[in-house]
Write a structure and sequence with these properties.
146 residues; alpha/beta; 7-stranded mixed sheet; 2 helices; elongated
Length: 146
Amino acid sequence: MKFRVLVTLFALALAAFPALAQETDSGSSSKKFENESEYYPVFVQVEKVYNYAKGYIVTYRKGPFQMANAYLPLEWFSGTSGKGEILRQGAGNAWPRLVVYYKGGEMSHVRLYVHRDRNHETWGVARASRELDSKFENVEDLKLEF
């Protein structure tokens, strides 16, 4: 009989434990985490970065067999607009990547991680053309294709 009572009390304690373990929500913050960022990053693996007179042409994969280009004006990286930052990686095995940060559903800024050595296979030079010039004019945001 004592055994049944002990088992019953143990089962009741186990059943009540999850209810006691829940944290109370203060209701003062809508964020889930204490240090949650307001920026949403999108990472893109880069195949090649082409230097161009008006900016960078970034070729990236948009699927297993397709490529797309992103056109990043030099003004973004000059410091006046604050929309772009180029970071040179060491001589290791790191491959270039592009990180686009969104805030409130709109593009905030980009970070382009490139190989330090301009002779690396991931660097290229694009030839000047009027068609390419137009891709860099009045660019305010970046729409990635997937």
